[in-house]
Design brief:
Elements lengths: L1 E6 L4 E7 L2 E6 L11 E6 L2 H14 L2 E4 L9 E2 L9 H13 L5 E6 L2 E7 L4 E9 L1 H11 L19 H27 L4 E5 L3 H5 L7 E2 L3 H14 L2
Parallel strand pairs: 1-4, 4-5, 6-9, 7-10, 10-11
Antiparallel strand pairs: 1-2, 2-3, 7-8, 8-9
Amino acid sequence: MNLTVDIGNSAVKAALWDGGRLVRTVESGEWKVESYDRAIVVSTREAVSAEIEAEIRRRAGFFIKFDYTTPVPVKNLYATPATLGADRLAGAVGAHALFSNRTMLVVDFGTAITYDVVTAVGEFLGGSISPGAGIRFRALHEFTEALPLCGLPREVEFPGRDTRTAIENGVATGIVAEVERYIAAAGEKFPGAGVIFTGGDADYFAGRVKIPTFAVPELVLRGLNAILEYNANL
């Protein structure tokens, strides 16, 4: 059994795997009572990860703290691998594990929205980073004295006839337009490329982007599992 743990900016996500098969996702802290043989942890928050890492190290026979020095089953062509978010690379590995014969654009809707390309021959090319929905709403609220703090709307009502609706429209519609442009750009450069959405807001935008996409909530965890399997067999 494999345990994969993704410590992000906003949440801790984990899953148990039997080889390449997802057994179930794991709630925060449940790895303390679960049984597993191998484990991998990736973190963007070092202060949080130290305690979790120590607990998992004690329980796993084989353990990886994933960073840019960890061998991965794709070729990393990023010019500055030490600055590459490990979760971005793990998501690309997960996409390639699912669609090994197709170039994929991975769109991860987290604290930041990342757009990354992994080719059909298993080359990670890099991508783009932009502010996520939460950051955009907080920026409007914190840097403009009179604007309220808002969130993603259930429905976009344009034109917005009050300030809250106008803000919600602007952020939601702006992200949709941004995503569709990146998908178009990927299709132009890599004909036939597929698109995977993942991250906390993936389902929200999957229902609003007018281009076929795959929604894979556990993509980073799947990539971590592929990396764990790869290293265990080296």
